[in-house]
Write a structure and sequence with these properties.
Radius of gyration: 28 Å
Strand order of the largest sheet: 4-3-2-1-5
Strand content: 25-35%
Distance between the termini: 106 Å
Shape: elongated
Order of helices and strands: HHHEEEEEEHEEH
Number of strands: 8
Largest sheet: 5 strands, antiparallel
Number of helices: 5
Helix content: 40-55%
Length: 218
Amino acid sequence: MLILLGSITIWSNELQTAAVTLLAIAAALVIATKELILCIMGSLWRFSTKAYDVGDRIEVGAFRGDVFQYNMFSTKLYEIGPGKDHHQFTGRMIELPNSLLLNTPVINESKTGPYVLHVFRVPFRKSEDWKGAAKLILGMAIEECSEYIEEAKRQFQRNSSKHVIESPNVEPRLHYSFSSSDQVDLVIRIPVPSKQKGRLEQAIIQRYIDAGETREPK
């Protein structure tokens, strides 16, 4: 003990210098590997929360696409877009560092199951016959979604029982919104297969455009 205490006393300055040096090296290593550490922590967060899996369509910040691969450091997406209002493959691949998962909300469009509720808008001027258009578009939406409604109902009822929440009404619905003083937006909500939102939305809009071309102007 005396030898040990004597050694510590004699070498105290050198030991202190060595400790400071090791601390500086450790701090430098942490700074240098910060992003890698955050990516690993993001991967652990994804694994523990099951936020998404391969095949899911997700949105992370400004990035949106279908997950086709992920590892400890990154997640790869086939980009969907352009923007949030379109549902086509852009032909580009996005590789996201998993560190984004720690401070950016992750929206999973496929989490409810094979069917989702999709919302889109059709704008009209107040001077137009938007009430007649609303009835026409709603009828077309019901026709386009008729084959999916019953299965979508069963899926959302199962989800509601599992999570003890109220089951939503999956029938096609229409609401009104005013984005400006002279514009009325028809907000249409429809049940669709999660990977066919764009197709059904465009089918309804195209049917309305075709119907408008055949009507006589007032």
